[in-house]
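User:
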Amino acid sequence: MSIGIEDVKLHFLLSIFFCFGINGVFATGRRLNTAESSPSRGIHHVPERNPFNPRDSGSVLFNVKSFGARADGRTDDSKAFRAAWKAACRSAGIVNLIIPKGEYLIGPTKFTGPCQNVSSLTIEVKGYLKASADLSKYDSSADWIEFGRVEGLTLTGGGTFDGEGVKAWPYNKCPVTSRCKLLPTNIKFVAMNKTVVRGITSVNSKFFHIAVVECNYFKGSKLKISAPPNSPNTDGIHIERSSFVYFSRSHIGTGDDCVSIGQGNSQVTITSITCGPGHGISVGSLGKYRNEGDVSGLVVRDCTMRETSNGIRIKTWANSPGSSAATNMTFENIVMNNVTNPIIIDQAYCPFESCAFKAPSRVRLRDIYFKNIRGTSSSAVAVMLECSRGIPCENVYLQDVHLDLAGGGHAHATSSSCKYVRVKYSGTQIPPPCS
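Assistant: Predicted structure:
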């Protein structure tokens, strides 16, 4: 029987299919049991196509358990996490670091770049990460989990970061004195670029839950953040010296601000946040330190405040050591549900029992828009605008504000209070405008 050239081609193609087809063609996705293991411990090469880069033939997976993580909730797994990160950061292409289900005890840990040859790095947290409660393990500058100088990081997976703050809160003296030691933040991002944080939970942080510092193009969504109402300084999200930051579709309930926008920020958007308990969404505090950066381009919209002590708040210190500004800020479509101070500008901010105000705030507030703010206030003064006597607020607009007194009563039972500001009103105004 003679064999033609076409038969040779057919046999050749069939041999390729049966040699490589099962582990190559059909092994799409992250199937560790069929992936080809590399000689390096904890590494798996997976032929998963990247839809954004047709040239990518696959990704590399690292599993913290392959580096010795026990996930028993008692053994300190910090060393295994650092080793897994070091290997992932030194890898190349599309990299995935997996933290499987289990309970991991972790001390202060930094995940630092740059990761020179990595095009994207995804950390998929499925497990429950529990912070060490021993404060002696954290030096004066240590937070719990810190990511720094990484581009293209995605943190996701539905896992939980438990700061074990209950044992640390009694040592927090910051609510009563400015000369205090800061406790560790749960998750801190420093000098990051193009970061995505999605679908994670942070509970009982010792200090801030999530801090975003000196980052660009940062996107967070579907976050769950919680701590008791009496937990001190447990801000849900704190943003500072960052640009193009976007947080959305999250539930935050803490003992402090749900979101705080600090100094030096630009182009920040906060949308679809449910806040409560807590102190609301705040700009500031600003003006406490010398050489603070300006705040501009802030948009807060489509948010709900539930029984918070403040709704939308702008707070600046008196006795400012330097000049700065907060301008072009819009707060739109905000629902207040039994909120103590639904709309408040406080340019004599004092979180302590008493403060010596020797000079007015030097933070200039200008071009501020409150639009479609509605719901109920638990206090009679629903709108309080107290600006700096040294630099009065400029171009403050209130459009369609309807805030009734909680618990019923006359529709106009709420009132407004204004100092050193001329407000421009339009549309519905309940409470009535300042005289």
